[in-house]
Each structure stands twice: as structure tokens, then as C-alpha cells.
Amino acid sequence: MESSPSLELVHLLQRFAQASDRYVESTGTLHGTHRTDMNALAVILGFEREGSAPTPGDLSRALQLSAPATTALLDRLQRLGYIQRQRTDKDRRVVCITLTDRARSDGRAMFMPLGEQMLKLISRYTPEQIEFLGEFMSQAISGVDAAREANESQKH
After folding, report:
1. Confidence class of residue 93 from pLDDT cuts 50, 70 and 90?
2. Which tens digits make up the pLDDT trace of 49-88?
3. Is residue 99 part of a domain?
4. pLDDT range class, residue 32, cuts 50, 70, 90
């Protein structure tokens, strides 16, 4: 099969995803967490950046886990001291998940080396190039999500 710059870029993106997976796996092993635990913490942090806290259902959808698997995940994260389950003031039946100070502290320890490497790399680019790369990555994420959704629609 003949190679092209576009195909090479796709291969590099695959290798980046695999390298990221290896980092999460090794960091999780070092800190006694599962890959799903690490992904859940990232999802919760993402919700917090948006100004909200996820419910167990939000986590279940984001991580594509069953309700029992989500409950087991939340129990594990709570035992580790990484999350709190809190009932909302508006509707006491609704439980929201928040990160603890320990999760933030351990998260910094887990991901500071990766963040520092990425910032060092990014600093070599101009603001315009960074904006372009950010737009590309955002569209690449949308592309992956669209491919996943297409796969899921074939199941039904």
C-alpha cells in the first residue's frame, strides 16, 4: 500500500493515542488505579471545567458503562478518597459526583510530567500554529466521536 502525507498523519494520530493509553496505563498502575478510574476522573474534571458536576448517569454515558459497572467504579473511587457523592439541593434524589482535594493532588502528581512535556512541545509553536493545531485536534476528536456513533448505530 502506497503511503501519503495524509495517511502518515492518520498513523501518527493512532500512535499518539496508543502512547497516551500507555501513559495512562503505567501511571494508573503506579498509583493503584484502573484505566477506567483515570478516565472517570478526567470526565469529572471536564464537567467541573464546564461549571457542573456529573451524575452517575452522565459518567455511565461518557464512559459507556452499565449502571452496575458505574456503581462499582464510583465505589472504588470513593474508597480511594477521590470522589464524593453529593445530593443536590434542588432534587435530593439526584446525586452529583465531585472530586476531592486528594484527587486533585494525586492527579497533578500523575499528569504533571505529561503536561510539562506537552507544554514544552507546544512552546515551540507560534500562537497562530497553536490555534491551528487546536482546531485540528478539536475536529479530530469530533471525527473519532462520529466514527464511534456510526459504529453504535450499526448495532441497532
Report:
1. confident
2. 999 999 999 999 999 999 999 999 999 999 999 999 998 7
3. yes
4. confident
Task: Check residue 1 and report its DSSP letter.
Answer: -
pLDDT at residue 124 is higher than 90: yes
Answer yes or no: are the C-beta atoms of 72 and 80 closer than 8 Å: no
Number of structural domains in the chain: 1
Q: Which of 20, 21, 9 lies closest to 136 in space, CA to CA?
A: 9
User: What is the pLDDT at residue 57?
Assistant: 95
Q: Strands of 14-57 (E only): list them.
A: none
How far, in Å, CA of 105 to CA of 125, rounded?
Answer: 30
pLDDT attached to residue 69: 96
Domain span at 78: 5-124
Domain assignment of residue 132, yes or no:
no
DSSP 66: -
Decide if 141 is inside a domain.
no
Residue 72's CATH number? 1.10.10.10
Residues 6+ apart with CB under 8 A from 37: 28, 73, 76, 77, 80, 82
Q: Give strand ranges (E) for the chain.
A: 83-87, 95-99
Task: State how far the Cα of 146 lies from the Cα of 112, in Å rounded to an integer.
Answer: 30
Residue 29 belongs to a domain = yes
